[in-house]
Each structure stands twice: as C-alpha cells, then as structure tokens.
Amino acid sequence: MTAERGAGVDAGMGAALSYLAELEAHNDRAWFAETKAERARALAAFDGLVADVQQRVGAFDPAVLGHDPKKLTFKLTRDTRFSNDKSPYNPSLRAHVGPAGKLPVPVGYYLMVRPGGRSFLGGGLFAAMFKDATDRVRRAIAADGDAWERVVEGLAPLQVEGEALKRVPQGFDATHPQAGWLKFKSWYLELPVPDEDVAAPGFAEAAAREFERMKPLNDFLNRALEGFEMPAR
C-alpha cells in the first residue's frame, strides 16, 4: 500500500512508532512507569488514527459505526500467565474495527502498528480457537464453493491465509473442489505496511482503501457466521 507522503510525516504516529521501538528495547515496568507522558501521546495519536479509519470504513461498511474508537483498541499489557515470554508489554498498537467493536466475530478490519516494518492491515477470521465459527465457515465454503472462489480470486494480489489441518476434517468431502480451503481453521488477509506509510499523513485514507478491498471476504465470512455467539467467559 502507499499512503500520501506529500505533506511529510504525521508527528503523532511517527512519535508513536518511536515510543514503541523504545518500549521493545526497555520492556520493563520501571521504564513503562517513567514514560507515562510519552505513552499517553502515542495512545492518543493511535486513538485518533482509529477514529479516522472507522469513519472512512463506515462509508462503505456502516456496520462498523456506533462504537467508541477508544474501545476498539487493545492494551499494551500482556497476559504472561501461560507464556514462556514474561516481558510485561506488547510493543504494538492494535485495534479491531468491526460490527461488534473489537470482538473478533462478526469479522471486521484489524490494524496493528509495530515498528520495524511489522505493521499490517488485516481482514477476515483470525480466531481459529472458535470451533463453531470454523465449522460454520467450512460449511458455507462447501455449500457454495463457486462463490468462495470468486471472492478469493477477486482479492488478488492479496492472498487468504490461515491456520490449517493436514487433512480435510471429518464430515467434509475430501474430494470437494475446495478441499484445500476446508482444511483451514481461520481465513484472513494480512497486508504489511512499512513504517513510512504508517507515519504518513494519508495513512488513514490509504488504510480504508485497502480495507474496502478486503470487504468481500468479510461479507462472505459474516454471512456464514450469522447466528454465531461468542463463548461466555
């Protein structure tokens, strides 16, 4: 993707990228506490970006409107209880702009900002842990493989990715024309974004254009996911 760079660099997101790079280098609670002011500015810049993206996406997908942009973002704090990596913070800014806010279903549009060329724009179903959601999508692909192929082909050069089994799961035809897709447990798009694009003033507009390209995948998945309920916590 290419953001407009004519006006130079967005000071807010440029500074946010710098803060994240420092957080990655000093991933400890003492440094985190000492940099409260810098963190507040980075979070405010990202909140503004998310709000801008939400409004632009809402022009072609009104279902994402009506949510407080600040509630579409994820915390920097990591849950380390079940991880070998005990670093307390995730040095990235993340948001999901979807019909149910930041909940992963119904699917929406995912934005991650991380320095070092690791930012990306995403769409589709990332949540492979929801077996009922996966089953619903598999059944939709099996029932209308031609429609699925039209969606996939229309996304080019973007490619649908996802976690996949080695074999077609039980209950589905291993000789089905879309057998390869039936192995998947998640179906999503990831478009890498270089740091200079994230920091460019036109990034929100450019991101919304890319998200519009991803909408046919989201539409197919959300039709398949109608009636799905998020598991109770």
What does this structure look like?
With 233 residues, the chain is α+β, with helices and mostly antiparallel strands. Helix content is 42%, strand content 10%. It has eight helices and four strands. Strands 1-2-3-4 form a four-stranded antiparallel sheet. A hairpin with a 5-residue loop joins β2 and β3. α1 crosses α3 (36-58), α3 (36-58) packs across α8 (203-224) and α4 packs across α5 (145-154). It is globular. The two termini are 37 Å apart. The mean pLDDT is 94.
Q: Helicity level, as a percent range?
A: 40-55%
Structural class: alpha+beta
Strand content: 5-15%
Largest sheet: 4 strands, antiparallel
Structure summarized in a few sentences:
By secondary structure, the protein is α+β, with helices and mostly antiparallel strands. The chain contains 8 helices and 4 strands.
How is this fold's topology laid out?
Blueprint: H1 11-25, H2 29-34, H3 36-58, E1 93-97, E2 109-113, E3 119-125, H4 131-143, H5 145-154, H6 179-182, E4 187-193, H7 195-198, H8 203-224
Antiparallel strand pairs: 1-2, 2-3, 3-4
Helix pairs in contact: 1-3, 3-8, 4-5
